[in-house]
């Protein structure tokens, strides 16, 4: 009886603070998603400009590529809790300042791109710090469970955010909607502020240059060849996968000849698949080999995308496409959650920020590279055939990476 009480108390020591952080970040993410959705629709309705829409998508990726190396070094040098609070408030205040200016003046639409850029910069510095805090608080044996809870809450936020954004866009002016970002940021910062995050004690206290610090972050992947192989495989798979997120509306409207309602059903299906896989990983499933499980996730994504590319152009097939979206989302989480837990478990805490920032860079560059390849090809052969090619590509890359791991006997 006494032992069970002790075990429960030990679990509560990390669980309650961790859940407070996750709840706060999820509320902030709902606000951010709602504002992002409303801003994009505002740009669309006000301009009907494909160029501005393209630029609005581009500004979300440029800061990640440019500032992620600096964000990773800063996350490892300074207090991660303070960085998260400052970055969250910066994002919220950027939206609030724009809302205030819109209330006072008639602002040109292109200014909204500046707001999107500022929000992207704040999120670039926020991401490696918040991801690096998790292993400071959670016991190693609970990392898969904790990351599953985190992904489950994020999936819910991705569902609620656009719904809230659409509802608010119909009921309120854009400057009122923008304040949602600041309110969500304040809630997240308050909850994070009351949580005591264990101090990060660096083993090497010798001051280094920014360049040396960044190189030290790169050494994480050079030292762990198993991790390096799966990150390379993930990056190559994303070059095939990322353009699909842009082509998704065209697949629904042009190929299946279906309306916007079907597109929203597909997005919901993907988010529900993400949530279902996160729930399974946090409760029922016990992950013994995290990297093998991460490869399974990539394989599930590849097979689901391949299946989508084989579907005929009909309304019944559209429903099968929507059903397959759940497996694409679920496969993504089956890949991401164990891989993140593996990184949390194996990378030293003082290098965690740089490791995750580098991962953000590689993920971000896959979108423009993928679109540069996929756009002209899909224009010639059709959207559905690009889904088929992407599925083949993801399955092939995953299989080659698995064979490569086994052949060189890296204790896989």
Description:
With 412 residues, the protein is mainly α. It folds into 2 domains: 1-194, MFS general substrate transporter like domains (Growth Hormone, Chain: A), CATH 1.20.1250.20; 210-412, Growth Hormone, Chain: A. It is 85% helix and 0% strand. It contains 14 helices and no strands. The protein has helices at 2-47, 50-58, 62-77, 80-104, 111-137, 143-171, 174-194, 210-223, 225-255, 260-282, 290-310, 315-346, 352-381, 383-407. The longest helix has 46 residues, at 2-47. It is globular and about 60 Å long.
CATH topology-level fold name of the largest domain: Growth Hormone, Chain: A
CATH superfamily of the largest domain: MFS general substrate transporter like domains
Q: State the domain count.
A: 2
Number of DSSP helical runs: 14
Major β-sheet profile: none
- Secondary structure tally: strands: 0
Instruction: Find the structural class using helix and strand composition.
Output: mainly alpha
What is the level 1 CATH name of the largest domain?
A: Mainly Alpha
User: Which parts are unreliable, with pLDDT below 50 for 5 consecutive residues or more?
Assistant: 1-10
Q: Tell me which CATH architecture of the largest domain applies here.
A: Up-down Bundle
Rg to the nearest angstrom? 21 Å
Can you give the helix content as a percent range? over 70%
> Mean pLDDT score, rounded?
79
Order of helices and strands: HHHHHHHHHHHHHH
User: Which outline best applies?
Assistant: globular
The percent range for strand residues is: under 5%
> What is the straight-line distance between the termini?
40 Å
């Amino acid at each position: 009886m006494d032992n069970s009480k002790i075990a429960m108390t030990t679990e509560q020591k990390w669980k309650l603070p961790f859940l407070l952080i996750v709840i706060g970040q999820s509320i902030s993410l709902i606000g951010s998603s709602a504002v992002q959705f409303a801003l994009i629709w505002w740009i669309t309705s006000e301009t009907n400009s494909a160029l501005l829409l393209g630029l609005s998508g581009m500004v979300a990726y440029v800061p990640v590529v440019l500032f992620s190396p600096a964000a990773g070094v800063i996350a490892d040098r300074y207090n991660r809790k303070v960085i998260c609070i400052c970055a969250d408030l910066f994002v919220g205040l950027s939206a609030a300042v724009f809302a205030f200016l819109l209330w006072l003046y008639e602002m040109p639409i292109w200014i909204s791109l500046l707001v999107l850029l500022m929000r992207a910069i704040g999120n670039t510095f926020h991401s490696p710090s918040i991801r690096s805090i998790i292993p400071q608080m959670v016991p190693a044996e609970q990392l898969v469970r904790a990351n599953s809870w985190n992904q489950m809450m994020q999936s819910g936020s991705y569902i609620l955010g656009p719904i809230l954004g659409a509802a608010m866009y119909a009921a309120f002016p854009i400057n009122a909607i923008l304040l949602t970002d600041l309110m969500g940021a304040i809630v997240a910062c308050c909850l994070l502020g009351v949580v005591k995050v264990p101090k990060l004690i660096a083993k090497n206290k010798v001051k280094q240059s920014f360049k040396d610090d960044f190189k030290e972050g790169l050494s994480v992947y050079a030292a762990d060849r198993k991790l390096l192989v799966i990150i390379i495989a993930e990056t190559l798979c994303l070059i095939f996968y990322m353009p699909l997120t842009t082509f998704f509306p065209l697949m629904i409207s042009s190929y299946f000849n279906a309306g916007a309602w079907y597109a929203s059903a597909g997005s919901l299906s993907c988010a529900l698949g993400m949530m279902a896989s996160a729930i399974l990983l946090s409760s029922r499933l016990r992950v013994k080999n995290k990297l093998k499980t991460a490869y399974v996730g990539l394989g599930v994504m590849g097979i689901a995308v391949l299946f989508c590319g084989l579907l005929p152009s009909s309304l019944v097939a559209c429903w099968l496409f929507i059903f397959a979206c759940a497996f694409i989302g679920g496969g993504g989480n089956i890949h991401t959650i164990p891989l993140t837990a593996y990184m949390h478990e194996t990378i030293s805490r003082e290098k965690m920020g740089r490791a995750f920032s580098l991962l953000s860079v590689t993920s971000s560059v896959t979108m423009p590279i993928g679109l540069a390849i996929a756009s002209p090809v899909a224009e010639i052969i059709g959207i559905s055939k690009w889904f088929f090619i992407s599925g083949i590509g993801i399955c092939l890359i995953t299989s080659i990476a698995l064979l490569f791991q086994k052949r060189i006997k890296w204790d896989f």
